[in-house]
Write a structure and sequence with these properties.
256 residues; 9 helices; binds nickel (II) ion; alpha/beta; TIM Barrel
Length: 256
């Protein structure tokens, strides 16, 4: 079944129908979901969702755009959440230069602290990197991010950059953007990335694929992503679904 590696079901966009939606996933072929914390409150909510739904696992971390709220106390809270049996990764964490705030030095400081935490607790990382390709890679190399392993979520860089992450044994989160007509660079990268390094993700409620671009996203839209990857790779949708599930189970330590 489809393994959704990156969703934010704690987001208020799901307040009206969260339970109904989550319970409907299985009948649409979505077997497992990793819910991703983007703030301290979001990480707490992620663990609650994981406790409530057997097919939901969690990642706890603070998104680069939210690090202004982060303190030593917040890091201690994340460390304690990492001990929960259904927490399978640390993140999302990283660098986002799309907006001027928070300050780059602050983003780097908390990215490093969260990478250190992942190493300390022995969990893989969920990397968010937007318009910050070189700095992200430089930091990950300097801090030996190959030791924790992880996934570059919503990978949006070139095939040359993909090669760098492949050398660090990272996975690549591929979502709705792959269905966009103007995603030429990403399509080239996906053709280049080996199938055993690709994870399916939505980033729900964001980044809905065609033909639902602009609408609220959910894991129910993953078949559009599967079909786009199957076309690019020249393999069946079943193969895409099976291989990406194996990849995710391996990365998150959920092999049966
Ligand atoms: Ni996200």
């Amino acid at each position: 079944m489809i393994f959704e590696s990156h969703a934010h079901y704690d987001d208020e966009a799901f307040d009206s129908d969260r339970e109904e939606l989550l319970f409907s996933l299985a009948e649409h072929g979505i077997g497992t979901v990793v819910n991703i914390g983007a703030s301290i409150a979001g990480s707490e909510a992620t663990v609650k969702l994981a406790e409530k739904y057997p097919f939901v696992y969690g990642a706890v971390g603070v998104h680069p755009s939210e690090v202004a709220e982060l303190t030593e106390e917040g890091m201690a809270r994340l460390r304690s959440l990492c001990g929960h049996e259904k927490v399978v990764a640390v993140g999302e964490m990283g660098l986002d230069y799309h907006y001027p705030e928070p300050d780059v030095s602050l983003q780097k400081k908390w990215f490093e602290m969260q990478l250190d935490l992942a190493r300390e607790v022995g969990l893989p990382v969920i990397i968010h990197s937007r318009e910050a390709a070189k700095d992200t890679l430089d930091m990950m190399r300097a801090l030996h991010a190959e030791e924790t392993g992880g996934v570059v979520h919503c990978f949006s860089y070139t095939k040359e950059m993909a090669r760098e992450y492949l050398n660090m044994d990272y996975y690549f989160g591929i979502g709705g953007v792959i269905t966009f007509k103007n995603a030429k660079k990403l399509k080239e990268a996906v053709q280049y990335i080996p199938m055993d390094r690709i994870l399916l993700e939505t980033d729900s409620p964001y980044l809905s694929p065609e033909p639902h671009r602009g609408e609220r996203n959910s894991s129910l839209n993953l078949p559009y992503v599967v079909s786009a990857i199957s076309e690019l790779k020249g393999i069946s949708c079943e193969e895409v679904t099976e291989q990406t599930e194996r990849n995710a189970r391996k990365l998150f330590g959920l092999e049966g």
